[in-house]
Specification:
The chain has 182 residues and is α+β, with helices and mostly antiparallel strands. The protein contains 5 helices and 9 strands. A hairpin with a 2-residue loop joins β8 (159-166) and β9 (169-178). The longest helix is centred in the first third of the chain and has 18 residues, at 13-30.
Length: 182
């Protein structure tokens, strides 16, 4: 049976707390809750699509070698201005992230399809704060509210995760691959 799977970097520490606080804030003030209710936890999607055998995704994340240094740096907020906008935290496209992503893409033969959003031409490293229920006329107010939180930060890359996702269910964590931390 086909499953929609993602391999992602788990956001850690203070930045994770700020993203969750931002989601709480926009839910209480604007009723924006889709992402908060459907994500397993804040993360950076590296590759996603359909697979027939999730075991191959597990093997893939177990095979990833972690580059040095192991920091992921965010550079602040961003948004995609569409009829249903997306608000996100943006990250540097560092050697760390690109190295892991390249390792993942070298082994894509078992993916039956790859999501358009991870296409090399359009993909950016980001963590979605809000999507699907953001109204264009609220976007300016949402961004103003979120400026009280400083999203320019970094965290130590501690884990890759394999997530199952669908359009109307909460993401399911299938496997976590923890890297050694010191």
């Amino acid at each position: 049976m086909m499953k929609c799977m993602s391999v992602a970097i788990r956001v850690e520490n203070t930045l994770k707390t700020k993203i969750c606080k931002a989601q709480d804030l926009i839910q209480s003030k604007f009723g924006v809750k889709f992402q908060k209710q459907n994500q397993s936890f804040p993360h950076i999607n590296l590759i996603s699509g359909e697979v027939a055998d999730v075991g191959q995704v597990y093997s893939l994340i177990d095979s990833i070698s972690l580059p040095d240094p192991q920091l992921v740096s965010s550079i602040g907020l961003g948004c995609f201005l569409t009829p249903s906008p997306t608000v996100f935290v943006r990250y540097e496209a560092s050697k760390n992230i690109l190295s892991i992503r390249n390792q993942l893409f070298k082994n894509i033969k078992f993916w039956t399809s790859i999501d358009y959003t991870v296409n090399e031409k359009i993909w950016i490293p980001k963590t979605t704060i809000a999507c699907n229920d953001v109204e264009v006329f609220d976007l300016s107010k949402i961004c103003t509210e979120l400026t009280v939180l400083d999203f320019s930060s970094n965290f130590r890359l501690e884990a890759l995760v394999a997530l199952e996702y669908s359009t109307n269910q909460v993401e399911i964590v299938h496997k976590t691959c923890n890297f050694m931390t010191t």
